[in-house]
User: What shape does this take?
Amino acid sequence: MSALNLPALRWGKPYESLEFQEISHFITGEPVAKISQINGGMIRRDMRHATKARNILRDIPVEDLIAMVKKAGALFETAELPLGDGTQSVDDFVRQQSATTGLPEVLCRSNITKNAFVLKNIEQILDALTRGLDLNILSQGYGLEDRGVIVSYQAQANALGAVLPSNSPGVHTLWLPVIPLQIGLVLKPGSQEPWTAYRVASAFEQVGIPMEAISICPGGHDVGESILAACERSMIFGSAQTVEKYAGNPGVQVHGPGFSKILLGDDVVDDWEKYLDLMVESVYSNGGRSCINCSNIWAPRHTKEIAQALAERLGPIEPKAPEDPESGLAAFTAEGVGKAVWEMLQRDLDESGVTDMTAEYGSRLVEHETCAYLRPMVVHCESPESAIATKEFMFPFASVVECPQDQMLSKIGPTLVGTAITKDLNWIRQLSDATHIDRLNVGAIPTNRLNWLQPHEGNLIDFLFRSRAYQVPEEMLAAV
Amino acid sequence: MSTTEFPSVDVEQLSKEARDQLDQHAYEVVQFHFHESTGCPFWLEKKAEFNFDPLTEVKGYDDIKKFPLFEDEWLRGGPVRRWVPKALSDKPVYVFETGGTTGIPKSRIVVEDHWTDYELFSDTLPDEYFPKGANWLMLGPSGPRRLRLAVEHLCQHRGGICFCIDLDPRWVVKLIKKGWMDHLEEYKKHCIDQAVTVLTAGHDIKCMFATPKLLDSLALGLEERGTSLQEVGITGIFSGGTEFTPQWTRYCVEELLGGPAEESGVYMTPTYGNTLMGLACSKPITAADGYKIAYYAPQPRAVTEVVSFDDPHQVVGYGETGRVKLTTLTKEFFVPGFLERDEGEREKPFATYPWDGVSGVRPYHEFATSTTVGVY
Assistant: This one.
C-alpha cells in the first residue's frame, strides 16, 4: 500500500500545497499519506464564495440530492474510490484509518457501517431531523403547510464548517446530512483521520454531487480558527476547554466530552446483574473512545458488586494487534499521551473512597516503542463527591458511583447520553425534565446504541435554519 | 536592483573579502565595547568574569566564540543606561522593547542603529516598486517597538512620509491567552479599518510594511470593500516573520497580490529580523525556485550562522539543518552569539551577499509547540 497524496479541496478544486503533513503507521512508521496543508487566510478568502456552494446545490432538486447521497452511501461502504493521486478500496480505507489513528480495524469497519447507514437512510434521517417537514420548504425558504399556513425556515449559513476530530470516525454522522439540505461543507479533517472526509467527498463526486459545494481544508490551528470565524455556522469537536471557549457563541456547535452515564433506579438495582451486558457494551464498545460510551454508572446500592462484576469482565482484556478481529482497544499514538492519562488517573485514585477494581488484573498502562494502550479500567466511588465520579477518558473506563436516587440528578453533571433504567414514573418525569441530559434513554438501552432517527446533541436543522414569520397577501397564497 | 546575480563574479573571492572585512570589523567592535573609555558598563563589568582579555585575545570573528553565549534575559530590567557605551553617552538614546505581555520586557538601547540598518535595507529595494518620494503605511505594532520607528525612517530616508496605525501587540497576546477569539477578531478589524481609512484617504501611499497576518487581512478587507491592494495604489510591500514559509509566500503572491510583480505590479519582499539584529534581506523569491526564502544578515554589522543543535559553536554543512545563531557587531550593541528561537538550513553565499545565509526559517522544533508566532 503506497502512501497517498491528498490535496486540499477548495470548493472542489484540488490544491497541492508546498507544505505537507505526513502521517504514518503508528507501529511501523511506514508513511500512509502526505496531506497538503493550507492556511487560514485561504478559508476566509474562499468563504467569500460560499453563496455559490448553496446556490449550486439549490439548483438540484432535494429529491435528486437525496437519491445521490443514498448511492454515495453504498459506494462509501463498498466501492474502490478515487482518492488523491490513487484509489482506495474499503480494505485500504480500514487499514489506513487504523494505521493512523490506532483504532483496531474491526472498529474502523463498524464505523464504516455507521456512516454508510446515515448516508443510505438519509431520507428517514432528514425526516426525523425536520420532524417531517417538506424539504422543499428548507430549499425555498418558505412554503405552505398541509393545514394551509405559511411556514418559513431561513438558512443561517451557506456552508457548514466542521473542525473534525481524529479520535472517533463515528462522529462524521453529524455532518453527513448537510449536503441534501443544500448547504455547503467546509471540513477540516482530523490530522490523524483525514480518511472519512476524503472518502465521503469522493463518493459524493462519483454520484454527481457538485464538488463546488465542498471544501476539505487540512492545516494547522489557524485553519480551524478561520473556519469557526468565517463560517456562519460551524461545529467543532474537542475537550471541555473547547466547550468552554465557544460556550455562548450561537454560530458554533461544540461537541465535547460526553460524560455519558447509566443510572440504575431504586426499583431495579437489586436486579443489577440483568444489566451487566448492557453496562459492559456501553463502556467497551468502539474502544471506549466515543462520547456516547458510558463513563459513569450510578446506583443507590450494590455499587461495589457492580464494579467488581464489571472489572471481572473488562479487567482481563488486553491490547491486540490492530488487524486482529478480537482487538477492542485503540492505541494512544501521540507520544506520551497514554502515560500522561495514566498519571492523571493515578492522582484521582489517591482520593479516599476511590478503589481501582481492575488493579488485580495487571497494569493498565501498556507501553510500546511507538504507542501506548490503556486497558479497561473500573473504579468504585463510595461517594459522588469524588473527582473521578464524573470523569471521562479516551479508553474503556467506568466509575461506579454510589448515590441515593433522589440525589443523582443534582450530582451527575452534564450528560450527553443518559440511560436510566427504572420504571419509577415520578423519577422518569424528573429525568425527562433534566436539561443537563441531552439524549435520554429510559429503560435497558446501551448508551452507545443511538437511534439515528433521533436528533443528536443539538438538532442540525435548528442549528442551520431559523423558523421565522413570512407573510404574503391572500391572493399570492396559491403561488406559495 | 542590487540583488542581481552575475554568473561571472567570483563568489569565492567576494566571500574572502567579506570575511576579511568581518574579521577587521569584529576586532574593532570588540575593542570599542571593552575599552574603558568607550565601552558600556554592562560589558566592562562582565569582562571581569571572562578567562580571557577581549582587548588582546579577540583578533577576528572566530575569536568571538571565546565569549559566553548571549543571554537575552540580561536585557530584562534596569538600569537601562548600563547598556549605553561611554563613547555614545551624550547622544539621544532610544529604548526598544520585545515581549512584555506579562512581566518585565527585554530592552535594547539604540542610538542610530535602526536608521543605519534600514538605510542599508533601503539600498536593496527596487525603485520601480518602492518609488523614491512615495508615502508609506506602517501596518505593524506601535508602542515601544523598533520596527515602528525603523519603518518610518526607511520611508523618510526614501523621501516619503509614513502613516502609522495603533496596534498594541501585548493586548493581542493577552486576547489569545484568554481565548477571547471574538475580541481578537474585532481588534484585527479595528487595525484593518485604520489601515483602509488611511489608504483610501488620498494620501498617495505606494509602499507599506505589513506583518503577514495583517497583510492577509488587509487584502481581504480591501476586497470586501470592492477594491484591492493594486487599486489603492500599493506597489511595494515589505514584510517579515517566521510565517514566511514558501507556501505562505506562494499564497501571498498568487492570492493576495494577484501574481508575481511583473504581472500584478506589486512587489513583496520578506525579511527576517528582530530587535537584537536588525533585519536580514531575502534573496529574490520566485515560483520557479519553489518560493524558497533564503535570508542574509547585514554583514558585518550582524552575522547569522546555522549551528548544530548539540554544539552552538559548530556550524552545520550547507543545506543542513541547525539552529539560527545571531551575532550583532555594532558600536551601539554587542551580541556575541545568541541562539535564536528559530531553526533553518544553511545557505551558500552568492554574489550579492557573499556570506552564509539561512533558509526555511521556522520556530526551533523544541520550542515550537510553546511558541506563539505571528500573533498580529
User: Anything to note?
Assistant: The first strand of chain B starts at residue 94 and ends at 98.
